[in-house]
Backbone:
């Protein structure tokens, strides 16, 4: 009997796409590709969510199924015991101070970012907010009695200030009506009579208020008269206000703020932002991190003497963003945080404030792969068109396994006030380790981490394309590297990085092979008109005001959609159907325009996602489509 050959396109060899994924252009995904990449897609990370004062356990966010859920870890290296069981990802969990352990959860549906607050009890969520508006957790009161949060329930746009006892649904009380979407509750005083409120108008301009919780009166403390950045104002045990600010420096410093608005720096580093900090419950010390060229460096400061000691035992990586604070200090003094690096997928550590000894609480799986074998990046600095120094992190494939000049993907961060930092590369390690594709993560002008002068260099429509010119300078410099092949360069980017991806395809099509643009802005005017109203004013400060005729004309002129005829390379575009930031229409209009000009545009739409894919089945399928795209355009079939 002669065996019937199994053809590559038979149904058994094709992976079914997730129900919410709509594919237009990309080929089907083969079982061979999924098997080849599977270990890289099974890495997980643990993100620290806080301490439990009752039993000294920690709360972490990690993924064992399709989405991120909350888990409890009782002791270092103990099992991760799952306590939330939702189909949608949990954005964050907040444990009450004190012994009762009340746990509040923030979660949305379908990535729409209309977050609701819940109390988590026995694996079930009890809704605390209205179920419709956008709600954002702020802080617990020190005694664990109240939470403060903001909500757009009044009109869908303005983030009013509320307090609530989460043990009593329906106890929420509107304390203050405000104008704008940038408000947050930062902290409560020990007596619960006042709260610190932050109104973030832009990355360069925030106002610190003290709110009388009985009357609802807001008293501006700093930032109302002289614009500056203020981040994370907090009360110490003695009632003193601490905050990070750039009012006295080009960088964010940690210091105290008096009621007259005078900021007194206390951190002593002459350069780099203080990115995160936490005050010990008794006020005796502060743990803070500086962002040193992208690497998080932890310090412990004695408040009475000002003496600061560096913590040396942590991986040279990145403390990830967290709502409230990425660092938390337990009542007994232990400092908790999570960190990731090229060789650490993302794990939780604690630090003893007396000895600075480091304890690792979790060791997240990396799909069976040896994370220690991953390559560390090198910092590359480049002089741009106007002499400004810009930089990025370059990951090179192993030259013994992949000799000769290698293809390169330039992956541009979002924000635009984001920053590429040397953390775990996750599934992208497959490109490095198995495909031999080099990766470069640039920090163009406008990125954070390099001071307020640098972050302002791209503001407004007139300066916007200077950041695109930075990509051109980086392509020039990297093209001279004798390990890289300038005939096989590509660009990628997400969100604002998606705009940069489109814009790079407009300006540099003759110098790149392809572009993979993820939830990106294609037209600044249509974007500003259709992004959710609660965030529109914040974006106008950065990009320009489409209501002003002169700025509108310039925004249209620099929009990639206007110059789509200059795009001559294949493009892969990914879109979230519920995206509240960059609506799916931004992708639809540029796909239509590219195809009308005879160009190639692949499209991956996830109907149940928002600004980025957060359900594992969707993330995986998009990754496989992207790998096929890179293989065609950089490694062989279909390459120019």
Residues:
């Amino acid at each position: 009997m002669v065996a019937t050959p199994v053809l590559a396109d038979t149904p058994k060899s094709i992976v079914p796409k997730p129900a919410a994924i709509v594919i237009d252009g990309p080929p089907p995904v083969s079982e061979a590709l999924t098997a080849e990449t599977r270990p890289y897609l099974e890495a997980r990370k643990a993100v620290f969510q806080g301490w439990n004062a009752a039993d000294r356990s920690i709360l972490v966010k990690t993924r064992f199924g399709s989405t991120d859920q909350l888990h409890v870890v009782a002791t270092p290296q103990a099992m991760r015991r799952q306590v939330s069981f939702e189909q949608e990802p949990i954005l964050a969990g907040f444990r009450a101070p004190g012994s009762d352990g009340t746990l509040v959860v923030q979660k949305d549906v379908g990535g729409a970012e209309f977050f609701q607050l819940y109390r988590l009890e026995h694996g079930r969520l009890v809704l605390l907010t209205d179920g419709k508006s956008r709600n954002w957790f702020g802080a617990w009161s020190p005694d664990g009695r109240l939470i403060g949060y903001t909500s757009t329930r009044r009109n869908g746009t303005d983030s009013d200030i509320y307090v609530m006892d989460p043990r009593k649904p329906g106890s929420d009380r509107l304390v203050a009506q405000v104008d704008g979407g940038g408000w947050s509750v930062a902290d409560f005083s020990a007596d619960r009579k006042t709260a610190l409120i932050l109104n973030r108008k832009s990355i360069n301009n925030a106002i610190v208020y003290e709110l009388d919780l009985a009357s609802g009166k807001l008293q501006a403390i700093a930032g109302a008269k002289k614009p500056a950045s203020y981040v994370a104002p907090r009360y110490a045990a003695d009632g003193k206000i601490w905050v990070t600010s750039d009012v006295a420096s080009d960088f964010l410093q940690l210091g105290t703020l008096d009621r007259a608005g005078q900021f007194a720096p206390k951190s002593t580093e002459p350069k780099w932002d203080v990115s995160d900090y936490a005050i010990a419950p008794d006020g005796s010390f502060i743990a803070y991190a500086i962002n040193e060229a992208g690497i998080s460096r932890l310090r412990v400061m004695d408040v009475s003497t000002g003496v600061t000691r560096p913590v040396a035992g942590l991986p040279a990586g990145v403390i990830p963003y967290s709502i409230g604070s990425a660092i938390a200090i337990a009542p007994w003094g232990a400092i908790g945080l999570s960190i990731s690096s090229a060789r650490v997928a993302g794990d939780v550590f604690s630090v003893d404030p007396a000895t600075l000894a480091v304890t690792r609480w979790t060791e997240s799986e990396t799909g069976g792969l040896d994370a220690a074998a991953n390559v560390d990046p090198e910092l590359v600095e480049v002089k741009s068109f106007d002499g400004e120094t810009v930089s990025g992190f370059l990951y090179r494939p192993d030259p013994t396994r992949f000799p000769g000049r290698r293809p390169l993907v330039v992956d541009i961060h979002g924000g635009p006030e984001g920053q590429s930092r040397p953390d775990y590369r996750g599934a992208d390690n497959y490109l490095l380790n198995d495909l031999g594709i080099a990766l470069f993560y640039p920090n163009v002008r406008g990125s954070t981490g390099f001071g307020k002068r640098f972050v302002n260099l791209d503001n407004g429509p007139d300066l916007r394309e200077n950041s695109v010119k930075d990509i051109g300078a980086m392509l020039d410099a990297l093209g001279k590297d004798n390990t890289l092949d300038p005939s096989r360069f590509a660009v990628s980017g997400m969100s604002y990085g998606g705009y940069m991806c489109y814009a790079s395809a407009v300006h540099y099509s003759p110098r790149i092979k392809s572009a993979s643009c993820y939830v990106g802005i294609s037209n600044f005017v249509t974007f500003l008109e259709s992004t959710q109203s609660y965030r529109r004013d914040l974006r106008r400060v950065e990009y320009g005001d489409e209501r002003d005729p002169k700025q509108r004309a310039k925004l249209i002129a620099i929009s990639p959609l206007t110059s789509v005829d200059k795009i001559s390379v294949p493009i892969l575009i990914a879109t979230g159907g519920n995206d509240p930031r960059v609506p799916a229409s931004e992708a639809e209009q540029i796909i239509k325009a590219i195809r009308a000009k005879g160009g190639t545009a692949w499209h991956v739409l996830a109907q149940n996602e928002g600004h980025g894919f957060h359900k594992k089945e969707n993330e995986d399928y998009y990754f496989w489509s992207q790998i096929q795209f890179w293989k065609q355009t950089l490694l062989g079939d279909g390459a120019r």
About this structure: The longest strand covers residues 484-494. The radius of gyration is 24 Å.
